[in-house]
Design brief:
The protein is of the alpha+beta class. It has 14 helices and 32 strands. The protein starts with a strand and ends with a strand. The strands form 6 sheets. Strands 17-16-20-14-15-19-18 form a 7-stranded antiparallel beta sheet. Strands 1-6-2-3-10-11 form a 6-stranded mixed beta sheet. A 6-stranded mixed beta sheet has the order 5-4-22-21-25-13.
Length: about 650
């Protein structure tokens, strides 16, 4: 195996290059094209020239954000890499992408991989691609095969890159070549050195790899707030130097923006799940260069015959002139070529990661004996200048982030402490509210008991008169005693009903709106009847649901009782309370309204506050509506709101 690299200049110079290096047509030649040129006609012209000169060779290519040629980084060129294999068969395929990136990865493997395949080189366009799903689809079919390559670039415009092969060019596709041989040895190594700075953020809304909001802000709003308007205006390009990072096991993974659809969201190369914690990242330039040199040392022992570097545009732009030191060190391994794009594939049987802001290096040999190389590194010049400043800024950011994290932890502990105190206060409020409501319930019990007690008194008086008159009628006595027994039973049932009402529910139960309304009105019936208040029930909900019935009944009683009080206070003629129940979007809704004229606009926003009341303070605690809202929201996970309609106030419980 041997690799020859050239910067494309013209057809004649390409012809001379092939002749000088004795490169003749063969199906065992792999040509990789790394093109800064986005002109599709120019790309097609070069591919056509190569097909005329080497018609049997396999061609795969991609547009770039920078090209790598034998220790140099180019930014406005087209690099051609010719790898001549001796014992390796090549199979290539270009497929269009669709919404199911995982399935495309599987399909790609099924079309070109066989039992002797040792490696895949994969190039894909970045537009609307879930690159991690694509890689996982590939690895699901061939987990032990080395996968290397990356996403196309487009000069940092984030509009549209291209991938291509012998016959097609696509701005929404993936191209791969399978390298199959019993004699092929491959090694794929990568490194990424980005660490979080600043506070943690939570992904609040996303869909697959489309990030819609972070901490309820758009990505652009977040960058503007924490990095400034200038950085935010340059997204997605500025995101290459300030990517997001998230922690995975014991390392940080980088997530860079691939494109801006223009609708406020941003597209990434991997799924961005809601609830995931992310931070803004900053690179450690010195560690980047050191880890790249460690890769060179490892590959020097591996003894590869051909080396390809697939790096991140963000890494190149972050390191600036020091990126040349990184690439220059790889020349000790032999001829080196590659490109910078918007993400890197790295799978080697252990990991299958789509990477951002990294460098991934593929080394191959067909020789059974490693051609080990002695590695030496040049001293990095001007180390006390820009690199030192970059490292100092990184250190400041890291220490500041650590101090902020400690401060946040202290604040969180303080908040938890205050929350516990507030819960104790809420417990006291609940207790006070229960006591106040028990007083009202005692009045209601008195109403419920008055009629049966009067009936018992009248029956016993009749018996007493019969005895005084000496008229002992056995049938009359037995009938009267049976009536007294029924009245006592009614009194006992009333006590049981009220007792059950005051028992707090510890478990949820199946119930329906009809049961809740019926029980509430049973408890209030005597008082409502005494005050001649017309109660109308409109129940259009017939399905059951799970909640704490007693708690909801308690709230309905409180709302009806409040309506009763306002109707009496304002001396409304033909007082009326309407209780409506219906369902909307899988929610169960109970409305309690009256014709009492409504709530004054200047206090309607305050009525759910604790201790707020329009009644005499001696007769009201001001806790009823506060606790009603608390019960519905906290216990039943619903909502309680109020509004004025044309006749009066309308309270709406949503469960």
């Amino acid at each position: 195996m041997k690799t020859y690299n050239i910067r494309y200049r013209s057809h004649d110079k390409l012809h001379d290059f092939l002749y000088t290096n004795e490169i003749v047509d063969s199906s065992d030649i792999l040509i990789q094209i790394f093109s800064y040129e986005l002109n599709t006609n120019k790309i097609k012209e070069i591919v056509s020239q190569l097909k005329n000169l080497l018609p049997s060779a396999k061609i795969i290519g991609t547009t770039t954000d920078g090209e790598i040629l034998d220790g140099r980084i180019l930014t406005k060129d087209i690099v051609l890499s010719f790898t001549l294999f001796e014992h390796t068969k090549l199979t290539s395929k270009l497929l269009p992408l669709d919404n199911d990136s995982f399935a495309i990865g599987q399909k790609l493997v099924g079309s070109i991989v066989n039992e002797d395949t040792k490696a895949l080189i994969v190039f894909a366009t970045s537009k609307e691609l879930n690159a991690q799903n694509l890689l996982q689809g590939i690895c699901s079919e061939c987990g032990e095969i080395v996968v290397s390559g990356g996403l196309s670039g487009d000069r940092g415009s984030f509009q549209s890159g291209y991938i291509f092969d012998n016959d097609e060019i696509s701005d929404y596709g993936v191209v791969a070549v399978a390298l199959s041989s019993e004699n092929l040895h491959v090694s794929n190594l990568s490194t990424s050195e980005w660490e979080p700075v600043g506070r943690e953020f939570t992904i609040t809304k996303s869909k697959d790899n489309r990030l819609i909001s972070v901490d309820k802000m758009s990505v652009r709003e977040l960058y503007a707030k924490y990095l400034g308007e200038e950085i935010a205006k340059q997204l997605p390009l500025s995101g290459l130097q300030f990517p997001f990072v998230l922690k995975s096991d014991d390392r940080y993974l980088v997530r860079s923006i691939l494109s801006d659809p223009g609708d406020g969201s941003m597209l990434f190369g991997t799924t961005m799940p809601e609830g995931e914690k992310i931070q803004i990242g900053f690179g450690d330039a010195k560690t980047m260069l050191q880890n790249s040199r460690n890769i060179v040392k490892n590959l020097g022992t591996f003894g590869g015959e051909s080396t390809f570097v697939y790096g991140s545009a963000g890494r190149r732009r972050f390191l600036k002139q020091y990126a040349h030191y990184e690439i220059e060190s790889f020349t000790q391994l032999g001829a080196v070529s590659g490109f910078y794009g918007y993400g890197e594939f790295c799978a080697n049987g252990k990991d299958s990661l789509f990477l951002n802001q990294s460098v991934s290096v593929l080394s191959m040999r067909e020789s059974s004996t490693p051609l080990t190389k002695e590695i030496h590194f040049k001293e990095i010049r001007h180390a006390n200048d820009d690199l030192q400043i970059m490292r100092a800024l990184s250190h400041i950011a890291k220490i500041s982030a650590h101090e902020l994290q400690e401060l946040n932890q202290k604040l969180e502990a303080r908040v938890k402490e205050e929350v516990q105190k507030n819960r104790k206060k809420d417990g006291i409020l609940i207790h006070n509210s229960k006591l106040a409501q028990m007083g009202e319930m005692m009045s209601l019990i008195a109403h419920q008991w008055r009629q049966p007690l009067n009936a018992i008194s009248a029956t016993s008086t009749g018996l007493h008169v019969k005895i005084e008159l000496g008229r002992y009628d056995e049938d009359f006595f037995l009938s009267s005693l049976n009536k007294i027994e029924e009245y006592v039973k009614h009194l006992s049932t009333t006590v049981d009903d009220f007792t059950n009402f005051f028992k707090p529910s510890k478990r949820t139960h199946e119930t329906d709106c009809a049961f809740i309304i019926e029980r509430a009105l049973f408890i209030l019936s005597a008082s409502l009847s005494k005050n001649s208040i017309d109660v109308r029930v409109e129940n259009n909900s017939d399905t059951t649901f799970t909640t704490y019935p007693n708690e909801v009944i308690q709230v309905v009683i409180n709302l009806v009782k409040n309506a009763e009080n306002i109707l009496l206070k304002r001396e409304i003629k033909n007082p009326q309370i309407t209780i409506s129940a219906y369902e909307k979007e899988d929610k169960h809704i109970i409305e309690v309204s009256d014709n009492g004229g409504g709530i004054e606009e200047d206090i309607i926003e305050k009525i759910f506050e604790p201790y707020f009341t329009t009644k005499n303070h001696e007769s009201s605690t001001g806790l009823g509506l506060y606790m009603s809202k608390f019960i519905i929201q906290e216990s039943c996970k619903g909502s309680l709101v109020v509004k004025n309609d044309q006749n009066g106030a309308c309270f709406t419980i949503t469960l």
